[in-house]
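chain below, 155 aa
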Amino acid sequence: METLLLGPTRLPPTLYRIHYANAKTTFNSTEGFVASDAIALPLMDLDSLRLALISHASWAHVPSPFISMFADERHARNWALARGDLSARMMVIDTARLPARQVLHAVDAYQTLSIKVPAIARNGHEYLCVNRIPATAVIREIGFGELENARELGE
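prediction:
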């Protein structure tokens, strides 16, 4: 499992988290993002990781230790707007401020662990942070209206 966990030097400099009012992952400006089902990483074996990833990729709407982020800003923005949820906002994450070795590249993890996932989950843009993203890693928050304006301007 250690080979799947990426340090900051193996991550894009910026990732994008879409957050909305009814998300299972919680957010506040003090703690940052907290996953709905925290796990002890050193204690998690590959079978447990595999089951957690299968549940996450199937959108089973059960508690998850993973907090999804996108590497592609346009993909993240379009995903937020497609939901049509006015509470949606895009949080810009500075990956240098993420906890060391607590991020997985979703597609690599699915392939390494031989997990079959829907095509939408194989886009290569998704990264998964385990347990939490500290508030200090959130460097910008973009509201729904600003996301709509950026789309209209073709940004």
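Helices lie at 46-57, 73-83, 106-112, 144-152. Strands lie at 5-6, 14-19, 26-28, 32-34, 66-70, 89-94, 103-105, 126-130, 132-133, 138-143.
thats it, cya
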